[in-house]
Amino acid sequence: MKNIIDNLNIVTIQVGDDYADIQMFVVNKLVLQEKSAYFAAAFSNKWTTIKDDKCYFRKPNISASVFEALLRYLNTDVFDLSVYDPSACLDLLIASDEMIFDDLLEKVQTYLIEHEKLWLETMIIDVLNIIVPRPACFQLRNYCINEIVERDARLLFESPKFSLLEENVLLLLVGNDELNIKEIDIWKNLIRWGLDNINNISDRNIDECKLLQQTLCKFLPLIRFFQISPNEFDRYVRPYEKILSEKLLEEYSQFRFTGIIPITNRIIEPRLPPLRIESKIIKPKHAALISSWINGKSEIGQSVPYTFKRIYRASTDGISGKAFHEKCDRAGPTIILVKSSGSEQILGGYNPLKNGWKRGWFSSNHQTDFAFIFSFDNGRNLSNAKISRIKENAKHCALVDHPWDGPCFGAGPDLWVSINCSKKIGQVVNDTYEMGIKDHDVFFYWDDWEVFQIIKNKY
């Protein structure tokens, strides 16, 4: 009897579907049941087969190499993902999700985000198709959408694999308000996706226009047609007017004469204006809001009238006064962006002076009414953004020369960043500006900071 019980605690698992890949693994059922809710359920139901007092289980939709990696994870204290290529890690992610190895699922997502950024960008279509339908992969999904697609939607929409995007994935993306791409480019690529995918509709008695309308019917309500110029509408949208409603066409005709968006179409928020910014600290949506602040406004407009040109990054250009001043003196208007250590907080300031950050003690050239400082409590949204403008009659202290050098706003200093590589510190003391950009006056450590030249667009 004891031998029978011992035998039933051992299971032979057959993995692989292709004959060449089929392989048998003999494992302890109790170990798998303890680590995986999937196997706990599988071994307690009728999914196993008992033959000659031995237990057998088939798992054809997982390869031998992936299952071997799972067993290695279960039987070792240190599991090194770097020995696997990123594609194998993605296969391991799928298996971990299906078989509910929660710890491994989190480990693989973290590894890909921290060590395979370039691969994720290159394979963004394939990755999104896999992770979007899997709720447990939210960490990797959020990274791919927030840090790759929203930063540069061209990686997605201009990919030769764009037409391979699954419908549910594309719906999620087209509904995103923060796609950094023109609305007309979304439309053109959506038409391309639709035309390439109408072959999936089996009824060939329907004409192509009707097929296209059926394919895109879920997407059309998500397109911000009123962010498309009349010229672009006539050139790229009008040829497909048969797939659009008569009501939309009529309302757009009214819009092009009045400039007023019909009330029925205001329920869809305009997307953020397209903007490129080569930053590791902020995203285009932050830059769009900063542009509005520069123009004295509090909300993002339909277009961004500035180009953000990065001229300095501490981590790559050198943390020294020499490096900073060589690149930033006489640069004209600039913004400073600082990533605070140990948190997601971003601090920054706008310097509107023509002489940039050239030092000049007590110089009248440092006086301005238009400087401001700001903060974002995290890099994901704008709802917690703070802006603090120079106090009335304090323009002589808007920008000051800090005794230790480095960009400095206000006499507090209201915001100062050290350029000493051995002391990656900064300071915030509310004094010259209207309010503090931190909850209290404090020294802080920073991970990195950047300077961008603000160039007024000519058109």
TrEMBL record:
<feature type="domain" description="BTB">
    <location>
        <begin position="9"/>
        <end position="83"/>
    </location>
</feature>
<dbReference type="Pfam" id="PF07534">
    <property type="entry name" value="TLD"/>
</dbReference>
<dbReference type="InterPro" id="IPR000210">
    <property type="entry name" value="BTB/POZ_dom"/>
</dbReference>
<dbReference type="Pfam" id="PF00651">
    <property type="entry name" value="BTB"/>
</dbReference>
<protein>
    <submittedName>
        <fullName>4018_t:CDS:1</fullName>
    </submittedName>
</protein>
<dbReference type="InterPro" id="IPR011333">
    <property type="entry name" value="SKP1/BTB/POZ_sf"/>
</dbReference>
<feature type="domain" description="TLDc">
    <location>
        <begin position="280"/>
        <end position="455"/>
    </location>
</feature>
<dbReference type="InterPro" id="IPR006571">
    <property type="entry name" value="TLDc_dom"/>
</dbReference>
